[in-house]
Amino acid sequence: MKKAQERSGTGGRDARSGTALELLVHGVGGTTPTEMLDDPRTVRITGDHVAAVFRRTEDADAESRPEDYRGRPVPEAYVWCNLTSGNGTRALWLLLLPFMVVNIAHWMRPAAHGRIRTVRLYGLLLRLAGLTLTVLLVAAACEVALDLVAWQCAGTRACAERHSWLGFLSPALSEGGWWSTPGRRLALAAAVPAALTGLLWYLSLRTWRAYESQQPMDREADSEDDPRRAALSRPGFWYGRRLVARLRAAHTAAGLLTVAVGVAAPAARFDRRPGGPAPLDTLGWALLGAMAAGAVTVAAVVCRRGRSERLIDRTLDEHLVRRLPLAALLLLVLALLYGGWSRPDWTSDGRLSGNTAFGGIALVQGLLVVALAVVAHLLHRSRPDVRAAIRGLGGPAVAMLACALGGVMSGGVAQRVADWMDGTGTSLDGPPVLLTWQASVIPPLLVVVLLMCAALALHTLRLARAERDAVEGDHPGEAGDPGRTRRIALARAMATLTDRAPLLVAITSAATLLLGAGALVGALTTGEVPGEAARGTYAVVQGAAQTAQDLGSWLIGLGFILFVTWGRRAYKDASARRTIGVLWDVGTFWPRAAHPFAPPCYAERAVPDLTWRMATWTRATGGRLVISGHSQGSVLAAAASWQLEPSARRRVALLTYGSPLERLYGRWFPAHFGPDALASLHEEVDCWRNLYRRTDPIGGPVRLPGDAGPAVDRAPLKDPLTYGRTELHPLPAPILGHSDYQADPVFAEERGRLLARLRPGLPAPRHTGGAAATVPAADGTAGDC
């Protein structure tokens, strides 16, 4: 604030001058300040290389020349794309995709008032589901390093001969070398999953410091007596340091304990054989008991109350954050010593107990998803929302997909490593049977998805044919062009596919749950891969099982290869990294509340940035500010507006275009962007106008309840701007869809109306009783607000 006053001479003169600010916020995929400000000469006025506010060079000292900006605003551009698509390390975030998806599911709970315990149970179930994903990832690393490499391949002469780097671990090739005993091989291989756990801990800590350590502005908590008060207006919403640190400690401990069990359990089973050494048997039981106590402690930490949002929570559970991972690390060291103890008669044969481990994880995940669906249904039924995705079951459906994604990634890694290690396909037993069953359900699941896509494509074509009459009706008196009409109608029809995404997600999730349950039952009851389990049945059944097994193995391998290739290309190619950045733009908007190893929340940096910029401007100038957000930028603009002091919030006008606020966020995240929340934002800012096109697959109307809707949403913009060739447009105008809203004259018109409404000093009167206030437009006409 002081710097702003120094640049302008005096704060009072700025307030009297009426200088206005237009703060532009870009959407997904990012852009450059040059493109946003339409000027090749730009200068950074605040911020750093990650996220910053830019102006045109000629506007850098606008505050000192208020007379030059009497009839126009000072344009500024907030550029945040480097938060999600900066350097090459962002490509590594692809490995964290299941964690990101389950974290998104946490924020999809239905809106409910007065159901505090049920809401907390919803969050608890998601945190437990996130914990199972961490255990699944580390268990997959254990399966590869401990079972396939150290136990099976190093213990088999033929496999060890094909991989000479395993010679010192092979009892046959090393002639009984020190590392050749099974326990020591497992202890050495445990370095891989332990290092993976340590890497996840380090990345979570490092990204938190880089992205999420920006403290919001200090302000008093808003009153929560009003049930329509948006949760995003709470002072501590964008600062979840305590929870993330607590979950990070718990998940790190869970990963280390998983590795410890993977090393100690085979040794303990060997020691429990008749005639085994009693001291080692006792030590094994004690060590496994300590690990069980550690697992209970981890679960208890995860089950503790989640986020504290009413106040900025700067406290930290230092003893828990430090001691829990250290205790788990100590147990891992003891497990390594115990497993590596000399056992001359111990040999490795068959598989480790991966089938039981992966089966238990899959069973727990399925039960958590079912329980989550019940809780979500109860919340939705208490306050039904007809626009909520999948009738409030969006969270459970997405959580199911997160678990399935984790299973596919785990199975893909294990299957590819097994194929690589066992070149002949005969010397190793391979990965657990359950992973093969899970791979075998991929083909039928793809059939379901393809049938759904075909049905949607057919429906889209029918809708496109029906839209042709509407397109011609929008352009009366113009010569018809059948080809042009078909393209416009098809663009409108394809834009509606976004509204049918909940149906596709619901069917895919339900099919995944049923097929996954069938795979679990088949693996545990038969103990054989699908092709062998179906042997002796009807020929068609046996053929289908063998085909699904072979095709599933091929598909999961292909998916793994494409996954690695995509990540490698993104690491080296900035354009590919920007494409992946679009995924992070949408998926990492929400704070890490269910999983601490998810990619970092860029909004915990972007929202405080925008809040500070808007607050300092309104204080220094008396308040003439229009925050203009496109696509995902409109979501950031709304979140930042909620974070302002109520008095400053009333001095801000909001202009959104191509906005997914209601169409995507309102439907999928009804507790935070539902009708009550958006209506509250509309009442609290000075004015809000929203622009959209029928050809836009992302943006849409805000659809506020009651009489407030028309005051926000303008009628759909024309797209294309002209149907045929005209004097002003001699060449065919493009179909813009989601882009180039500022090219439409309506954009400048609406911005002019907002600026005309805003006045220095006190904000304009709000409308009351649901009636929209009439304000002068830039051209002298009347506009709604």
TrEMBL record:
It comes from Streptomyces anthocyanicus. Residues 1-20, 761-785 are annotated as: Disordered. The chain crosses the membrane at residues 121-141, 186-205, 249-270, 282-303, 324-341, 361-380, 392-414, 434-458, 501-524, 551-568. This is Integral membrane protein. SUPFAM superfamilies: alpha/beta-Hydrolases (SSF53474). The lineage of its organism: Bacteria, Bacillati, Actinomycetota, Actinomycetes, Kitasatosporales. Keywords: Membrane, Transmembrane, Transmembrane helix.
